[in-house]
Amino acid sequence: MANKLLASNLLVIVLQYGMLLLMCLFLYRVIHLVYLDFYSSTNPSLLVVKPKSGKLKVINRGSLVTDQAEFPIGETINIGRSEGNDIIINETTVSFEHACISYYCGEYLLSDLKSTNGTLHNDLRIQDDSVLHRGDKITIGSTIFLFEE
């Protein structure tokens, strides 16, 4: 009987300390989130990484719809055959939503959007996201761009 009483008292103590630990963890998370919220509102530029000034220069126009010679890249730029894209290439070998360039973690990434004929980065067909560097060549259909920062 004394062993059962001792075991039950020990179990109650362990549960009480466990509950205390969970409450402390909860309070820490709340205070940490409040701190982050306050810190980001006082200096939002520290949390938002602004894109560099990337641009695409047209080397070969192909079936490019516009006469524009350069396209500035903000956070993203979409390339394809449909009207909803930032750069429209009216060519049957170009998918409606063909490729995208996005700024992520300080780098510009070229992504093929599962197009039928693929996207070439420096004459190589890309499978996954590809990091762009100054002077890289991007080929979509018969249109060729040069990436600059």
TrEMBL record:
Instruction: Cite the CDD domains for this sequence.
Output: FHA (cd00060)
- Pfam families according to UniProt: FHA
Q: Which UniProt keywords apply?
A: Membrane, Transmembrane, Transmembrane helix
Bilayer-crossing regions: 6-28
Query: Which stretches make up the FHA domain?
Result: 77-126
Q: What is this protein called?
A: FHA domain-containing protein
Q: Origin organism of this chain?
A: Anaerosporomusa subterranea
